[in-house]
Amino acid sequence: MGKVQRTLGQISTLQNLTRWNEHLADQIAGKLSYGSTMGNTDQDQNLLIWKASGTTPGVANTDFTINHSLGSVPLTIVGQDTNNGGNLYRGSIPWTKTTISLRCTTAAAAYNVIFA
Length: 116
Description:
Shape: elongated
Helix content: 10-25%
Strand content: 25-35%
Radius of gyration: 22 Å
Order of helices and strands: HEEEEEE
Strand order of the largest sheet: 1-6-3
Number of helices: 1
């Protein structure tokens, strides 16, 4: 049986780093994705985010909770939209590794939200 050929030792460390950086850039450039639906199991989703859809409470500025499976406390809302111009913002209940609390400036808004 033949010996495995070492190729990295034949080029300089600078060349190795350059190739590694070029490879990373090729893999990342234009390929980061939130996914193609509001589901959290999209094959093309490759960011550590959580997406949720629903309707806010019937009274504006009322806390509501969303469950998630990020495994850590989210940092922020990355994106949002509502059907009536309402804005989603942090609720009064602290965010945890499994839930976030939000409020909306309008009542009964159908929403999509992405948080990370």
